[in-house]
């Protein structure tokens, strides 16, 4: 490519030594600021208690501090295009959704999910992305701006799960992980998949991560609920939940053996 550039530039016989060097300009990718991207939607803290979005949060028993991190819009399609002008797939005009903003470690907005309040919606979640940041590896990660690097990290499936555990980040969908975000230490982390022993995909993901040397929670018998929120709704306290996870965090061959028993339930 460079040779082709030289041929084209000097094909008229001009002297390379006396020719000024081209001025190559690089524009640094710019993330939308809070004032630009979130100004047209409503923080949950400004909605009345009777509002459907607030009632959804109450039914899910999400903690009060979660209300300060989430937003609401009655036209997610319009707002999503502000964040990602190329976004068209899956958008429905005038559809109300909770907005879950994704920030990097510096607090810059780079993506968001819209969570439907309609139980009959075709898609519960719609994701829109402003820019891809190299430090986020191969996934969209939620909770990085609140993450503490010196503490145990709970890696969970969804953003709502992070509200029930200390120092938690979400991989946003069950999967195997090739890399962790910058600042998330493998040795200080526990991966927490949903409690679904009959889900072959979940079992495969758990086996792969155990094989890669990660600590993975293999849930004990007798728990009611398939995910973290279900356990909270069933009456498990936040403190008890964290203890259950840490007590059942396993690695290596011991973990694979425990997983083989768990998946036969």
Biggest sheet details? 5 strands, antiparallel
Number of separate strands: 10
**Radius of gyration from the alpha-carbon trace, in angstroms:** 23 Å
Arithmetic mean pLDDT: 85
Low-confidence stretches: 133-138
Order of helices and strands: HHEHHEHEEEEHEEHEHHEH
Strand order of the largest sheet: 1-2-3-4-5
CATH topology assignment of the largest domain: Dna Topoisomerase Vi A Subunit, Chain: A, domain 2
> How many helices?
10
What structural category characterises the helix and strand content?
alpha+beta
CATH class of the largest domain: Alpha Beta
Share of helical residues: 25-40%
Quote the beta fraction. Answer: 5-15%
Total domains: 2
CATH architecture of the largest domain: 3-Layer(aba) Sandwich
């Amino acid at each position: 490519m460079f040779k082709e550039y030289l041929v084209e530039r000097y094909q008229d016989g001009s002297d390379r030594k006396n020719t000024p060097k081209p001025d190559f300009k690089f524009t640094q990718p710019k993330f939308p600021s809070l004032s630009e991207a979130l100004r047209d939607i409503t923080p949950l803290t400004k909605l009345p208690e009777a509002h459907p979005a607030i009632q959804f949060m109450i039914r899910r028993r999400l903690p009060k501090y979660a209300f300060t991190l989430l937003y609401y819009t009655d036209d997610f399609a319009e707002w999503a295009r502000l964040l990602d002008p190329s976004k068209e797939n899956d958008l429905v005009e005038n559809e109300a959704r909770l907005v879950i903003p994704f920030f990097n470690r510096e607090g810059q907005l780079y993506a968001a999910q819209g969570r439907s309040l309609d139980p009959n919606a075709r898609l519960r979640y719609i994701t829109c992305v402003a820019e891809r940041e190299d430090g986020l590896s191969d996934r969209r990660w939620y909770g990085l701006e609140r993450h503490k690097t010196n503490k145990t990290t709970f890696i969970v499936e969804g953003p709502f799960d992070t509200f029930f555990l200390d120092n938690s980040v979400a991989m946003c969908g069950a999967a195997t992980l090739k890399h962790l975000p910058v600042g998330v230490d493998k040795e200080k982390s526990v991966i927490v998949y949903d409690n679904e022993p009959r889900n072959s995909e979940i079992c495969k993901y758990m086996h792969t991560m155990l094989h890669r040397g990660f600590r993975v929670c293999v849930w004990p018998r007798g728990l009611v609920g398939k995910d973290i929120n279900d356990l909270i709704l069933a009456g498990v306290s936040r403190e008890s939940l964290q203890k259950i996870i840490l007590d059942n965090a396993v690695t290596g061959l011991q973990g694979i053996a425990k997983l083989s028993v768990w998946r036969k339930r």
